[in-house]
Amino acid sequence: MINRNWAVLIVVFILLSDLQSYSYSSPVEVEEYTQQCKNFLNRHSGELKDNSFEKLLGYIGNAQVCRIEKIYKRLDEEEKNRLNDVLLHIEDVKKGLSKKKLERINESIAAIMPAIENEVGKELSKDELKELDILLRAKWNGMLKALQQNNIDEAVHYFHHTVSDRYRKLFKTLNPDSRQKIGKDLANIHFVEVVMNTAVYEITSKLKKGEKSSFQLAFVKDVHGEWVIKSF
Length: 232
Description:
globular, alpha+beta
Protein backbone atom coordinates (compact mmCIF):
# COMPACT_ATOMS: atom_id res chain seq x y z
CA MET A 1 0.00 0.00 0.00
CA ILE A 2 1.31 3.46 -0.92
CA ASN A 3 2.11 5.65 2.05
CA ARG A 4 -0.56 8.38 2.45
CA ASN A 5 1.98 11.22 2.25
CA TRP A 6 3.50 9.80 -0.91
CA ALA A 7 0.05 9.45 -2.42
CA VAL A 8 -0.62 13.14 -1.77
CA LEU A 9 2.73 14.12 -3.32
CA ILE A 10 1.94 12.10 -6.43
CA VAL A 11 -1.42 13.82 -6.82
CA VAL A 12 0.26 17.20 -6.30
CA PHE A 13 2.77 16.35 -9.03
CA ILE A 14 -0.12 15.59 -11.39
CA LEU A 15 -1.72 18.92 -10.48
CA LEU A 16 1.54 20.76 -11.13
CA SER A 17 1.87 19.12 -14.52
CA ASP A 18 -1.58 20.31 -15.50
CA LEU A 19 -1.12 23.82 -14.12
CA GLN A 20 2.09 24.72 -15.87
CA SER A 21 4.11 24.54 -19.03
CA TYR A 22 7.20 26.07 -17.46
CA SER A 23 9.42 25.50 -14.46
CA TYR A 24 8.52 26.75 -10.99
CA SER A 25 12.17 26.77 -9.99
CA SER A 26 12.58 30.36 -11.20
CA PRO A 27 10.51 33.46 -10.29
CA VAL A 28 7.17 33.49 -12.08
CA GLU A 29 5.44 36.74 -13.02
CA VAL A 30 1.76 37.32 -12.30
CA GLU A 31 1.21 37.75 -16.02
CA GLU A 32 2.36 34.19 -16.72
CA TYR A 33 -0.09 32.72 -14.24
CA THR A 34 -2.78 35.02 -15.64
CA GLN A 35 -2.15 33.69 -19.13
CA GLN A 36 -2.28 30.13 -17.77
CA CYS A 37 -5.66 30.96 -16.25
CA LYS A 38 -6.95 32.54 -19.46
CA ASN A 39 -5.86 29.50 -21.49
CA PHE A 40 -7.67 27.25 -19.04
CA LEU A 41 -10.86 29.32 -19.24
CA ASN A 42 -10.72 29.28 -23.04
CA ARG A 43 -10.68 25.47 -22.93
CA HIS A 44 -13.36 25.10 -20.26
CA SER A 45 -16.59 27.00 -19.81
CA GLY A 46 -18.38 25.04 -17.13
CA GLU A 47 -17.96 21.43 -18.19
CA LEU A 48 -15.44 18.67 -17.65
CA LYS A 49 -15.65 15.98 -20.30
CA ASP A 50 -12.99 13.75 -18.76
CA ASN A 51 -14.25 12.79 -15.30
CA SER A 52 -11.07 11.01 -14.18
CA PHE A 53 -9.87 11.99 -10.72
CA GLU A 54 -6.56 13.36 -12.04
CA LYS A 55 -8.28 15.60 -14.58
CA LEU A 56 -10.76 16.76 -11.96
CA LEU A 57 -7.92 17.70 -9.64
CA GLY A 58 -6.19 19.69 -12.38
CA TYR A 59 -9.50 21.34 -13.25
CA ILE A 60 -10.05 22.41 -9.64
CA GLY A 61 -6.42 23.49 -9.27
CA ASN A 62 -6.58 25.75 -12.31
CA ALA A 63 -9.82 27.30 -11.06
CA GLN A 64 -8.17 28.04 -7.70
CA VAL A 65 -5.28 29.76 -9.47
CA CYS A 66 -7.77 31.92 -11.38
CA ARG A 67 -9.34 32.98 -8.08
CA ILE A 68 -6.08 34.49 -6.77
CA GLU A 69 -6.86 38.17 -6.35
CA LYS A 70 -4.04 39.55 -8.51
CA ILE A 71 -4.94 37.15 -11.31
CA TYR A 72 -8.71 37.56 -11.03
CA LYS A 73 -8.37 41.35 -11.41
CA ARG A 74 -6.71 40.82 -14.80
CA LEU A 75 -9.64 38.87 -16.25
CA ASP A 76 -12.25 40.57 -18.38
CA GLU A 77 -15.97 40.24 -17.65
CA GLU A 78 -16.46 37.33 -20.05
CA GLU A 79 -13.57 35.42 -18.46
CA LYS A 80 -14.94 36.11 -14.98
CA ASN A 81 -18.31 34.75 -16.09
CA ARG A 82 -16.61 31.64 -17.45
CA LEU A 83 -14.79 31.19 -14.16
CA ASN A 84 -18.09 31.43 -12.28
CA ASP A 85 -19.49 28.71 -14.55
CA VAL A 86 -16.46 26.53 -13.84
CA LEU A 87 -16.73 27.05 -10.07
CA LEU A 88 -20.45 26.22 -10.08
CA HIS A 89 -19.72 23.07 -12.06
CA ILE A 90 -17.04 22.09 -9.55
CA GLU A 91 -19.54 22.44 -6.71
CA ASP A 92 -21.96 20.15 -8.57
CA VAL A 93 -19.26 17.56 -9.27
CA LYS A 94 -18.08 17.59 -5.66
CA LYS A 95 -21.56 16.61 -4.48
CA GLY A 96 -21.13 13.25 -6.19
CA LEU A 97 -17.65 12.53 -4.82
CA SER A 98 -16.90 10.26 -1.91
CA LYS A 99 -15.57 11.71 1.34
CA LYS A 100 -12.20 10.07 0.64
CA LYS A 101 -11.85 11.74 -2.77
CA LEU A 102 -12.85 15.12 -1.35
CA GLU A 103 -10.17 14.77 1.33
CA ARG A 104 -7.55 13.93 -1.32
CA ILE A 105 -8.53 16.99 -3.34
CA ASN A 106 -8.41 19.27 -0.31
CA GLU A 107 -5.01 17.91 0.75
CA SER A 108 -3.54 18.35 -2.71
CA ILE A 109 -4.86 21.88 -3.20
CA ALA A 110 -3.69 22.86 0.29
CA ALA A 111 -0.23 21.48 -0.51
CA ILE A 112 0.32 23.39 -3.74
CA MET A 113 -1.64 26.65 -3.50
CA PRO A 114 0.50 28.39 -0.82
CA ALA A 115 3.57 28.06 -3.08
CA ILE A 116 1.69 29.57 -6.01
CA GLU A 117 0.33 32.35 -3.80
CA ASN A 118 3.87 33.21 -2.72
CA GLU A 119 5.19 33.25 -6.28
CA VAL A 120 2.61 35.76 -7.50
CA GLY A 121 3.23 38.02 -4.51
CA LYS A 122 -0.16 37.60 -2.88
CA GLU A 123 0.69 39.84 0.07
CA LEU A 124 -1.75 42.70 0.21
CA SER A 125 -0.58 46.28 0.53
CA LYS A 126 -1.51 48.28 3.62
CA ASP A 127 -4.20 50.11 1.66
CA GLU A 128 -5.62 46.81 0.33
CA LEU A 129 -5.66 45.32 3.84
CA LYS A 130 -7.38 48.44 5.19
CA GLU A 131 -9.99 48.27 2.43
CA LEU A 132 -10.59 44.57 3.06
CA ASP A 133 -10.82 45.11 6.81
CA ILE A 134 -13.49 47.79 6.33
CA LEU A 135 -15.48 45.48 4.05
CA LEU A 136 -15.34 42.47 6.38
CA ARG A 137 -16.18 44.48 9.49
CA ALA A 138 -19.21 45.86 7.69
CA LYS A 139 -20.36 42.33 6.83
CA TRP A 140 -19.83 41.09 10.39
CA ASN A 141 -21.64 44.09 11.87
CA GLY A 142 -24.46 43.61 9.36
CA MET A 143 -24.88 40.02 10.50
CA LEU A 144 -24.85 41.01 14.19
CA LYS A 145 -27.35 43.80 13.58
CA ALA A 146 -29.71 41.34 11.89
CA LEU A 147 -29.41 39.05 14.92
CA GLN A 148 -30.15 41.92 17.28
CA GLN A 149 -33.29 42.61 15.25
CA ASN A 150 -34.15 38.89 15.37
CA ASN A 151 -34.02 38.70 11.58
CA ILE A 152 -32.50 35.23 11.18
CA ASP A 153 -33.00 35.07 7.42
CA GLU A 154 -31.02 38.27 6.97
CA ALA A 155 -28.32 37.09 9.39
CA VAL A 156 -27.63 33.79 7.60
CA HIS A 157 -27.46 35.67 4.29
CA TYR A 158 -23.94 36.72 5.37
CA PHE A 159 -22.76 33.09 5.68
CA HIS A 160 -21.28 30.71 3.13
CA HIS A 161 -24.03 28.60 1.58
CA THR A 162 -22.46 25.37 2.92
CA VAL A 163 -22.92 26.47 6.55
CA SER A 164 -25.95 28.80 6.42
CA ASP A 165 -28.44 26.06 7.34
CA ARG A 166 -26.35 25.05 10.34
CA TYR A 167 -26.24 28.60 11.67
CA ARG A 168 -29.92 29.11 10.90
CA LYS A 169 -30.74 26.14 13.15
CA LEU A 170 -28.36 27.43 15.82
CA PHE A 171 -29.89 30.92 15.84
CA LYS A 172 -33.41 29.47 16.00
CA THR A 173 -32.53 27.64 19.22
CA LEU A 174 -31.87 31.00 20.88
CA ASN A 175 -34.56 33.23 22.31
CA PRO A 176 -34.80 36.89 21.16
CA ASP A 177 -32.90 38.19 24.19
CA SER A 178 -30.03 35.76 23.56
CA ARG A 179 -29.78 36.81 19.91
CA GLN A 180 -29.61 40.45 20.94
CA LYS A 181 -26.93 39.61 23.51
CA ILE A 182 -24.82 37.85 20.86
CA GLY A 183 -25.21 40.87 18.62
CA LYS A 184 -23.67 43.06 21.33
CA ASP A 185 -21.15 40.68 22.91
CA LEU A 186 -19.43 39.55 19.68
CA ALA A 187 -18.92 42.98 18.12
CA ASN A 188 -15.27 43.29 19.18
CA ILE A 189 -13.11 41.70 16.44
CA HIS A 190 -9.38 41.99 15.67
CA PHE A 191 -7.71 41.26 12.35
CA VAL A 192 -5.22 38.35 12.44
CA GLU A 193 -4.22 37.40 8.89
CA VAL A 194 -5.26 36.75 5.31
CA VAL A 195 -4.26 33.35 3.93
CA MET A 196 -5.19 32.66 0.32
CA ASN A 197 -8.95 33.26 0.11
CA THR A 198 -9.49 33.18 3.87
CA ALA A 199 -9.41 36.12 6.28
CA VAL A 200 -9.05 35.32 9.97
CA TYR A 201 -10.14 37.51 12.89
CA GLU A 202 -10.18 37.04 16.65
CA ILE A 203 -13.37 37.78 18.55
CA THR A 204 -12.91 38.87 22.15
CA SER A 205 -15.88 38.97 24.47
CA LYS A 206 -16.86 38.84 28.12
CA LEU A 207 -19.57 36.22 27.90
CA LYS A 208 -19.12 35.36 31.56
CA LYS A 209 -18.66 37.73 34.48
CA GLY A 210 -15.01 38.62 34.83
CA GLU A 211 -13.93 36.14 32.16
CA LYS A 212 -12.61 37.14 28.77
CA SER A 213 -13.37 34.69 25.98
CA SER A 214 -11.68 34.46 22.59
CA PHE A 215 -13.04 32.93 19.38
CA GLN A 216 -11.83 32.65 15.82
CA LEU A 217 -13.86 34.24 13.04
CA ALA A 218 -13.18 33.17 9.46
CA PHE A 219 -14.30 34.79 6.21
CA VAL A 220 -13.90 33.05 2.85
CA LYS A 221 -14.67 33.87 -0.76
CA ASP A 222 -17.65 32.06 -2.27
CA VAL A 223 -17.91 30.81 -5.86
CA HIS A 224 -18.86 34.32 -6.98
CA GLY A 225 -15.80 35.89 -5.39
CA GLU A 226 -17.83 37.49 -2.58
CA TRP A 227 -16.53 37.49 0.99
CA VAL A 228 -18.82 35.58 3.35
CA ILE A 229 -18.65 34.24 6.91
CA LYS A 230 -17.47 30.64 7.09
CA SER A 231 -17.32 30.08 10.83
CA PHE A 232 -17.04 31.63 14.28
